[in-house]
């Protein structure tokens, strides 16, 4: 189960940064937008990962996976785009506003 362990630091950073951004204005709006982006990225990841795996472009050693799959794609593949959907807007919210700086 190597890949699930690799995901943990990305998940932890995303949770911490998102929590820190909760005090910034527009948190609810940002979370709704992130949820929409996450849903789109989830669908795109499901489609394209399954196509690429089915085409034989890459494989994953079963002993390094959690065993949970969506089609042919391991669940671990979905973590990075989903972390990005929430983490990137949170980091942007934490950066100083360049218009007032």
Automatic annotation (TrEMBL):
GO cellular component terms given for this protein: membrane
Membrane topology value: Multi-pass membrane protein
Domain Lycopene cyclase: 3-91
GO molecular function, one term: lycopene beta cyclase activity
Keywords in alphabetical order: Carotenoid biosynthesis, Isomerase, Membrane, Transmembrane, Transmembrane helix
Subcellular location: Membrane
Protein name in UniProt: Lycopene cyclase domain-containing protein
Pathway(s) the chain acts in: Carotenoid biosynthesis
Regions crossing the membrane: 6-23, 35-58, 78-95
Organism name: Microbacterium caowuchunii
Main location: membrane
A Pfam family: Lycopene_cyc
GO biological process: carotenoid biosynthetic process
């Amino acid at each position: 189960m190597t890949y699930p362990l690799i995901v943990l630091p990305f998940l932890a950073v995303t949770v911490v940064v998102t929590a820190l951004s909760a005090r910034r204005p527009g948190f609810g709006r940002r979370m709704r937008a992130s949820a929409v982006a996450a849903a789109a990225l989830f669908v795109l990841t499901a489609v394209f990962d399954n196509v690429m795996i089915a085409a034989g472009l890459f494989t994953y050693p079963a002993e390094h996976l959690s065993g949970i799959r969506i089609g042919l794609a391991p669940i671990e593949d979905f973590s990075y785009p989903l972390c990005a959907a929430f983490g990137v807007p949170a980091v942007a919210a934490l950066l100083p506003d360049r218009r007032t700086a």
